[in-house]
Amino acid sequence: MSIVEKHAFHRAEQIYERYLTAEEQARIQIPTSLADLVDKAAQFRNYRAKSPRFMMFSQEAMALEAFEKLIEGACEMSPKACGLIWGSVAFILEMVKEDATRLEKVTEFFLDMAKKVGKISFHLNELPISSVLDICYALYPAIVDFWLKAVKHYKVLKSDGIRDRIGAVAQFNYLDKKYQILASAINDQKSALERAEAGHLAAEVESDRVQSKLYPLATEN
Q1: Which of 48, 81, 82, 108 has the smallest count of CB within 10 Å of its CB?
Q2: pLDDT score recorded for residue 217
Q3: Which of 50, 55, 61 is nearest to 96 (CA)?
């Protein structure tokens, strides 16, 4: 395990232990894959009508399949790494499924993340492994950080109905701001991807140029 890799997963572990109680950790640590999350969302048939976006959840969530495979391969562990993310989202969906506004908001966050991270992950397969790992290790703790904070946030709201009603606007603003931090981190890695792609292309062009010069010499000999 590289230094960068250790740092990324250590940060995620620290976030996990800092924000969640032992009970919450045990709930989220139930092995959860992306497919498990999609299956769970599909079971909420009675709640789909409350959120137009949620009807698209199962289909659009699979954009993260490439990311899941990259993270599992990068950490050389079990699905536990991404399970922190998928388990957190599943936990939140269970908490908010009867609240149309919150169900819509959580779905908006998740599907926007899925779209952006999915695009990055798709292009990563074309890059050298060092660039792939750097981007994965930057994305992973940022995503874990947001979803674990969201778990804690919605858990507090669920247990305090009076404050929930009084401070609805402030509560939504809190997660909006936290999501903007995640969106900024994702955008940073999109820029890193574009730089890596440009560098990789330049290296290939230079390699072709060198080969084109060497080929005539080889044929002469």
Answers
A1: 108
A2: 46
A3: 50
pLDDT score of 137: 82
Do 14 and 80 form a contact (C-beta atoms < 8 A)? no
CA nearest to 200, candidates 122, 126, 118: 126
- Spell out the residues 6+ positions from residue 38 whose beta carbon is closer than 8 angstroms to its own: 57, 58, 61, 62
DSSP output for 81-120: HHHHHHHHHHHHHHHHTT-HHHHHHHHHHHHHHHHHHHHH
C-alpha to C-alpha distances, 162 to 10, 61, 104, 159, nearest whole angstrom: 37, 33, 21, 9
CA distance 69 to 140: 12
Distance CA 131, CA 193 (A): 8
Helices 129-159 and 3-19 cross at an angle (nearest 10°) of: 0
The pLDDT score that the predictor gives to residue 109 is 95
Q: What span, in angstroms and rounded, lies between the C-alpha atoms of 16 and 220?
A: 64
As averages over each run of 10 residues, the pLDDT of the chain (221 residues) reads 52 69 72 89 72 82 90 64 88 86 89 94 79 84 89 73 52 84 94 81 53 54 54
State the virtual CA torsion across 199, 74, 82, 141 in degrees, nearest 10: -60
Is-contact 87 35, C-beta < 8 A?
no
Q: Give the phi and the psi of residue 29 in degrees, each rounded to 5.
A: -75, -5
